[in-house]
Amino acid sequence: MNISPEEAARALGEIEASRAAMRTTVRGYRGHYMLWLWGGLWVVAALLVEFEGLHSLLIFRNWLMPAGIIVTFLIMLFQGTKIRSPVNKRFLGVLAIIVIFAFIWPFVLRGRATARSDFAYGALMAMFCYIVAGIWFDCYLLWIGLLISALILAGLFFFPAFFWWSVVLSGGTLVGTGFYVRYFWR
Amino acid sequence: MDELDAIIHQPARLQIMAALCQLKPLSQVDFTFLKTKLNLTDGNLGAHLLTLEEKGYIAVEKTFVARRPKTFVSATAAGRHAFDAHAAALKAILKAK
């Protein structure tokens, strides 16, 4: 098959136009809604503990977290009508194991927890899931997970106002990353 | 050197392959959504998808979402490879100009 350079240029132009149209759509599927949602919930949880004490985390566990999970499923359901990826059952299995162990460990280590360490533990577990997802799917979640885990540990051991640290640098990092991947990532 | 692929070179199919290859591997796109994005008609898109499917360049999955029939389309590994080779051949023609 032979074509002229002009025809080749036109074909490449069509490819670029089609890619550009799809790129706009794909930009809406980078996970920023999840980052905004869970980063926002993280900020709320840290503020609750800062102002109301550790017992207020029950509000987070009993109300905000289930609401977050429902909204997460609604986002997935809505986005899945246009572009979808097959569910990776092996990955879901790994996540389930992490969550189960995350619930078991506090009972094993009972007696040493403080409000700060309890909060940091939950946050580190969430970031553990991000890191696993990042390695599994070879995506930016690995780096967010590592960065925020380091920030959590730094805040826990070296920063007195840990919950404010958590609001700005942990929840804030998630929300900020959401804006970055949505608007600036090429 | 990569060669041009007559199946992919047809303008509508070129658009379809370019759009599908922009997605992550294994990701699927809804038929209606693709039709709107590429400004094609139902019949036109359906015919081109059939040609690409017969060649093994795309996979078509028919399913039900909320009790409504839905068709999802994705590029296969062979399709991605063929598309990349076709795009490389086009660039080579331009370079040789």
What are the main properties of this structure?
heterodimer, A: 186 residues, mainly alpha, 7 helices, 81% helix, elongated, B: 97 residues, alpha+beta, three-stranded antiparallel sheet, 5 helices
Radius of gyration of chain B: 14 Å
> Can you summarize the main beta sheet of chain B?
3 strands, antiparallel
Please outline the major beta sheet of chain A. Answer: none
The pLDDT mean of chain B sits at 90
Helix percentage range of chain A: over 70%
CA radius of gyration of chain A: 21 Å
Question: Would you report the number of β strands of chain A?
Answer: 1
How much of the sequence lies in strands of chain A comes to under 5%
Overview in brief:
The complex is a heterodimer of chains A (186) and B (97). Chain A has 186 residues and is mainly alpha-helical. Helix content of chain A is 81%, strand content 1%.
What does this molecule look like?
Chain A has 186 residues and is mainly alpha-helical. Chain A contains seven helices and one strand; from the N terminus they run H-H-H-E-H-H-H-H. Chain A starts with a helix and ends with a helix. The model of chain A has no long low-confidence stretch (mean pLDDT 86). By secondary structure, chain B is an alpha+beta fold. Chain B is elongated, with a radius of gyration of 14 Å. Chain B has five helices and three strands. The two termini of chain B are 16 Å apart.
Task: Give the topology.
The complex is a heterodimer of chains A (186) and B (97).
Chain A: H1 5-26, H2 32-52, H3 57-79, E1 83-84, H4 89-108, H5 115-137, H6 141-158, H7 162-184
Chain B: H1 6-9, H2 11-21, E1 28-30, H3 31-38, H4 42-54, E2 58-65, E3 68-75, H5 77-95
Antiparallel strand pairs in B: 1-3, 2-3
